[in-house]
Design a protein that fits this description.
Length: 672
């Protein structure tokens, strides 16, 4: 891969690794000094998981014979010295393929049989069922074996028309999109529904995931591709043929599945080598390429700079031969540089925000814990200094006073029990509306509304109503959490005033992220819930698959919201347990100290010195923990600034207004 992209991705991987090391160092420091307790530990674990599992997804989408597999070969497999993914003329990749790396599994090809469509299970559910997949081990050191194994993704089967219809691969309403039939009436369908390639490429090791999506028919037949995988990809590379331009089926893919998210789309005009003509000058060929580039941009309604003419065949051959000049002539490095300029800053900014917020929360928890300990030490020091020169009678009076204060303090348990009971009930009531069962019930109500309409033509309206109800559930949860916050605030104020606690509520939980995720799902689905999908939804098996996949997507949003709420409430209420435990320890230590002073008067000064030493140590620990958290935030922020500066060097528009489709385009469609 071109240095500009590979180096940028290496830098992103190195930055993430460095952040991970700093988080580990922070966690180790807190653990060694017994400062990572309860919520702080949970926040650290969440931060580590997010940094370690963050993926960067790039989808490659094209109709058949556009050179998509050859482009993936040129980017990822040129170091093997040969073609790895099948890239022969005609229909090659027959099923969607995900290319990534999971370090806890060996290099392998996982294949999901096409018959799993009949079970009505969504891809998300089947990913968690290893027995549903066929596994082939890959020898990454043997290019021949690797290539032979990956040919399996092209395998097809011949089934009856009825079977093809049951599998969702035959649509009577759109005969032009149906797969071919042989002389006996059998229909050719893919043998596999989905494929996962676990391959230890350096870029894949760093969290890059490549989604290879074949053809309009394959996209339309799999709801999860249409409504989940493609919309959630961080960028999509849409590949066209430079010799054909935008065909009718290409335009259908763009309009139905890609055009709504144009700012994250890259359009590739592949096979510019086919435009070379021995009877034309270099300038004439270049003018033809530029003309195709402009026409493609106008037809798709995007900026010309987002259309990249390349030759994947030339790029692969040049990389295998080590031909730098040939690689530049292929123009692939320009595309790779553009991908790096847009994708990497987006991922870095997301991770930076995660690190900033997570480290601040952890730091606040640690500072609060140390502050409570220091306050109790200060009370002990003040008390002990007051004992200087006092006789045993005075010490006995102090012991009695400590005992009386202890008994008085324990009276807070009644208030604590009442607060916890009310809190638990309010939290339980709030989480009911965010449960998986509630999501399932809401989707079932939508399905019932759709079933009332003829041929599910009211699908879009029913789905919009569903989203309104789900937004209302999120709003209700936010309101109820506000009520919990008010109740806890009143209880904390009383505990602080009457029993010497130092309880705080902290920053309230924001729900905008969950509402935005729900809005994204809604916009993705509404785009497809037109007449075509409504007719498909009339098929019970397709409807069941659609329902399962929809529930899976919505459940993620609501489970995340539920988890965030539980974490916030646990973090707030955990202060009570921590401070209650520390106060009881403090009373016990005070009494033990006074008893020792009764025995040996000379220990008074030693005990005062010991407490002052403990206070200084706690102050040092607080300073050091804040320094580690601040260094973590500074490292994240500095890397983002460097990335923004590198982006500015490339003239690639990240957002632009769509160009309206005109009469010329309509004529082009008729011609196609």
């Amino acid at each position: 891969m071109t240095p500009s992209f590979a180096n940028s991705l290496d830098a992103l991987g190195g930055w993430r690794a460095a952040l991970g090391e700093r988080v580990d160092a922070f966690a180790k420091f807190l653990a060694e000094h017994d400062l990572a307790q309860g919520p702080a530990n949970e926040h650290l674990a969440a931060l580590r998981e997010r940094l370690g599992n963050e993926k960067l997804v790039v989808a490659f989408v094209a109709e058949f014979s556009r050179g998509k597999s050859e482009l993936i070969n040129a980017i990822f497999f040129a170091d093997t010295g040969r073609r790895i993914l099948p890239a022969t003329p005609g229909r090659t990749t027959m099923c969607p393929v995900e290319l990534g790396w999971r370090g806890d599994e060996p290099a392998s090809l996982m294949l999901l049989p096409i018959e799993t469509r009949l079970e009505g299970l969504a891809l998300g559910e089947l990913r968690a069922q290893p027995r549903a997949w066929r596994r082939l081990d890959l020898d990454v050191d043997d290019a021949e074996q690797l290539a032979r194994s990956l040919v399996e993704v092209t395998r097809t089967e011949w089934v009856s028309e009825a079977q093809a219809r049951a599998l969702g691969l035959w649509d009577d309403a759109h005969p032009d999109d149906n797969p071919p039939r042989d002389d006996s009436g059998k229909v050719e369908v893919p043998a596999w529904r989905h494929a996962l390639i676990n391959y230890p490429h350096p870029l894949l090791r760093q969290g890059l995931v490549v989604l290879d999506t074949p053809g309009l028919n394959a996209i339309g037949a799999e709801p999860e591709l249409t409504l989940s995988l493609l919309p959630s990809a961080h960028a999509t590379v849409f590949i066209l043929g430079a010799d054909t331009g935008v065909t009718k089926s290409d335009l259908a893919i763009w309009r139905d599945h890609l055009g709504a998210h144009a700012p994250t789309r890259f359009v590739v005009l592949n096979k510019i080598d086919t435009l070379e003509d021995p009877l034309a000058t270099v300038e004439q060929v270049e003018a033809q390429i530029v003309s195709q580039q402009r026409e493609t941009a106008r037809t798709l309604g995007i900026a010309t700079q987002r259309v990249f003419p390349i030759s994947a065949r030339k790029a692969l051959a040049a990389r295998i031969a080590g031909d730098e000049m040939g690689l530049n002539e292929s123009r692939l490095p320009i595309l790779e540089a553009a991908l790096g300029a847009q994708l990497l800053p987006q991922r870095r900014q997301v991770l930076e925000q995660v690190v900033q917020e997570g480290s601040l929360q952890i730091e606040n928890l640690v500072v609060r814990h140390i502050g409570d300990s220091r306050r109790q030490l200060a009370e002990q020091t003040l008390e002990l200094r007051g004992l200087r020169g006092k006789n045993n009678a005075k010490v006995r009076l102090m012991i009695k006073r400590v005992d009386a204060e202890t008994v008085e303090f324990e009276e807070c348990t009644t208030l604590l029990q009442a607060m916890r009971s009310v809190h638990a009930r309010m939290l339980k009531d709030m989480l009911v509306d965010l449960s998986s069962d509630r999501v399932r019930d809401e989707v079932a109500e939508m399905q019932a509304s759709m079933g009332v309409s003829i041929l599910h033509l009211g699908a879009k309206k029913a789905f919009v109503v569903l989203c309104e109800r789900l937004r209302a559930l999120l709003a209700s949860a936010q309101r109820r959490n506000g009520e919990i916050r008010e109740m806890l605030g009143a209880s904390f104020a009383r505990l602080n005033a009457e029993f010497g606690f130092s309880l705080t509520l902290g920053k309230p939980l924001e729900f905008e992220r969950f509402t935005s995720e729900l809005q994204l799902i809604e916009s993705n689905y509404v785009q497809y819930l037109g007449l075509t999908l409504a007719l498909r939804l009339a098929q019970p098996k397709f409807m069941e698959q659609f329902r399962r996949m929809l529930i899976s997507k919505l459940r993620v949003v609501f489970e995340n919201a539920s988890s965030e709420l539980e974490l916030w409430n646990k973090a707030v209420s955990a202060q009570v347990d921590s401070q209650l435990r520390e106060r009881r320890k403090a009373f016990k230590r005070r009494r033990e100290t006074l008893e020792k002073i009764q025995m040996v008067a000379g220990e008074l000064e030693a005990r005062i010195d010991e407490i002052e030493t403990q206070d200084q140590r706690l102050l040092q620990l607080q300073t050091r923990s804040s320094e580690l958290a601040e260094a973590l935030r500074e490292h994240a922020f500095a890397a983002s600034l460097a990335t923004d500066a590198s982006m500015a060097m490339l003239d690639i528009p990240l957002f632009e207004d769509a160009v309206p489709v005109g009469e010329d385009e309509a004529a082009m469609q008729r011609q196609a």
